[in-house]
Design a protein that fits this description.
The chain is of the alpha+beta class. It is built from four helices and eight strands; from the N terminus they run ααββββαβββαβ. It has a single domain, classed as 2-Layer Sandwich (Mago nashi protein), CATH 3.30.1560.10. Helices cover about 30% and strands about 30% of the residues. It is flat and about 40 Å long. The N and C termini lie far apart (about 80 Å).
Length: about 170
């Protein structure tokens, strides 16, 4: 019985060695890939409603829905310098130290701030609606502002409003 077990163990170890020899190193750029999604959701009043997304190739997609200065869908490409600034801010903000959800389902008239990101193999999703640590919304907003309010955006799809004016005006 012990010879059979030893034989099986030998086969497993041999297989693992072959797998590791054939495995290619992942380039550091792929390991450090950044993807971010931030959304501000509705309330019963005039809360800003928008979404911003950073894709792995450095494309920023912004979708202004209501009560924001820029309505519609827009896109822009980040420079390497901007990507490095975003990476630094993500690391510095230490979002991984926060809970995944700050909420109270019995309170309905509050907007949510949702952050979802992946940097390399680390990913996190945070819902911040009620009872968030005071610095958390500020950190998310700083990141959102860097992505959504800077740079030269190109319109993809115009304002969904009938008169073309923003609800924030």
């Amino acid at each position: 019985m012990s010879k059979i077990l030893a034989g099986c163990l030998w086969l497993v170890v041999g297989s693992l060695e072959q797998c590791s020899e054939g495995r290619k190193k992942v380039p550091s750029s792929a390991r450090d890939t950044i993807e971010i999604f931030i959304a501000r959701t509705a309330c019963y009043g005039r809360c800003p409603i928008d979404e911003v997304e950073l894709t792995a190739d450095g494309t920023v997609r912004y979708y202004g829905k209501r009560f924001v200065p820029r309505l519609g869908r827009y896109t822009r490409q980040l420079s390497e310098k901007e990507l490095e600034e975003i990476r630094h801010l993500l690391i510095q903000s230490q979002f991984e130290s926060y809970q995944e959800e700050y909420d109270n389902p019995y309170v309905t008239d509050l907007p949510s701030l949702i952050l979802q990101y992946r940097i390399g193999s680390t990913s996190k999703r945070i819902l911040c609606r009620m009872g968030c640590p005071p610095e958390l919304p500020q950190k998310i907003e700083k990141l959102r502002s860097l992505l959504a309010e800077q740079g030269n955006f190109q319109m993809v799809e115009g304002s969904p409003s009938e008169n073309g004016k923003s609800d924030a005006e």
